């Protein structure tokens, strides 16, 4: 088992910057803005041959009584409970605060291995400012500069020293029977994305709060269900561009769009109480453009009456008509209603997106389609479709070869798409059809 290192501290002391240094990534959003990180954020680090897991947490206020800070504190306590060693990050330049004393008192009561780290200590390794942090009662203060990478290796070595190193073989080899399915949950702010993931996990893993914009980062959480491993990605709610004022939200939008692009399947969550908005259509358009498999789910279905349900179904048919290949489910995340069929559709969408289509079968379906309905003539010639093969997966791409294919109409493309979908039972994934016209070797030669 890899050891787990949890980073804790009050807001804006540089925990996320240190997280990015330890994991050698840019997975955690970093900005000069207190309270940016709200959920637990996991990453993998390595020191030589030794691997470990790093957990980034939100600003810790142990005595927070209510509101979002109470939820963040609960997340941090859970991260500390999971950790083998706790790295308590303080700000050398700001000095010791009352909140630092509260956190130190909490950590001393737990009795877990703890490393006290003085961040933002560039040029201050021998400074007297470090001495005041000894009053926290957690021993030696390690000066580091997460922004410049100074002292980070020594910190890692110090954190791992107290833990036993068991050189065990990995439980999972390269030939895993099943790959990990990356599932991104996307939608507008406050539609219940974090609540749904918490329901799937059976624990309050993500901060779920009745406040739009609670999730500001794309948070990844592992889950295994019926032998299949998933990587659940809770994304920040996407607002209209004109309403993205804070630089923090702009970062969140970028992270969300990247999460969609890196996913195998995207669950687009709609809010039954709000109907289908322009923003829902905008997110759906981006998912389609990225080529991801997609499943639609309407959350809070139990909170609306029959008339509202009928109007919502009509709205989905008209405003999201371009996603008619996507399965549609009506669910309630809080009451756990409709989640079983939803899982079935998510798996089916993944299988469709990664489906292998043999060239002989594709060509047979193509020629049968042409015999059933030939393409329209273009002047004196008619497009001639000869054979087809698969050109890619996720999304599936079918490449059709022939002559004069530039004259194939959009309507005929849709006809062919329907035939291919029916043959391979493609549900929940876009299907792209490319036409490649063969060149005529005699076009530049004179006859005779």
UniProtKB/TrEMBL annotation:
Alphabetic keyword roster: GTP-binding, Nucleotide-binding, Repeat, Ribosome biogenesis
Chain positions recorded as GTP 1 binding sites: 9-16, 56-60, 119-122
Binding positions for GTP 2 per the UniProt entry: 187-194, 234-238, 299-302
PROSITE patterns linked to this entry: G_ENGA
Pfam families: KH_dom-like, MMR_HSR1
CDD domains given in the database record: EngA1, EngA2
The family this protein is said to belong to: Belongs to the TRAFAC class TrmE-Era-EngA-EngB-Septin-like GTPase superfamily. EngA (Der) GTPase family.
Annotated HAMAP family: GTPase_Der
Protein function: GTPase that plays an essential role in the late steps of ribosome biogenesis.
Protein name stated in the entry: GTPase Der
Gene name, Swiss-Prot/TrEMBL: der
